[in-house]
Design goal:
Blueprint: H1 3-29, E1 45-53, H2 60-66, E2 71-80, E3 86-89, E4 101-104, H3 109-143
Antiparallel strand pairs: 1-2, 3-4
Helix pairs in contact: 1-3
Length: 145
């Protein structure tokens, strides 16, 4: 496995975590949204990660020599929460039904914030791995001088 291939694995992790963070921020922003263009309250979204083969544009020459057994991560699907919305009694609300209940998303802002912190830390771990790999490449080049 070349060091350049490891860079592509970390890059795939960073891209997946960025997508996850975007979905978490969207969930936080819409945690009180009772009306969407599709009708009804906002539906919470989650990213589904799967392993995926990685190829590195930096090491295209080496790929034929090493084979393609390098796997990274990708977002394979974005799923929406299918649970019934949370009902709150608010008779004066413009979105209240005939009984005075308003449908709110089943979103937990505290849980989403914890998940967002985790996504941020995972992203930073991939940045640290890429920095270490970059340092190894520089050291290898310096040894050849």
């Amino acid at each position: 496995m070349s060091l350049f291939s490891v860079l592509s694995v970390s890059a795939s992790g960073m891209a997946a975590e960025r997508t996850r963070a975007e979905l978490l921020v969207e969930n936080l922003a819409n945690s009180e949204t009772t009306r969407t263009p599709e009708g009804g309250p906002y539906r919470r979204k989650d990213a589904v990660f799967t392993s995926a083969p990685q190829s590195s544009p930096f090491s295209a020459v080496f790929q034929t020599e090493m084979g393609s057994g390098i796997t990274g991560v990708e977002v394979s699907d974005v799923i929406q929460d299918t649970r019934d919305p949370e009902k709150r009694y608010m008779p004066g609300h413009p979105d209240a039904d005939k009984d005075g209940y308003v449908a709110y998303p089943r979103a937990n802002p505290s849980e989403d914030m914890v998940n967002l912190m985790g996504a941020s830390r995972n992203f930073q771990a991939n940045v640290s791995a890429m920095t270490a790999i970059k340092d190894m490449i520089v050291q290898s080049i310096n040894l050849m001088k």
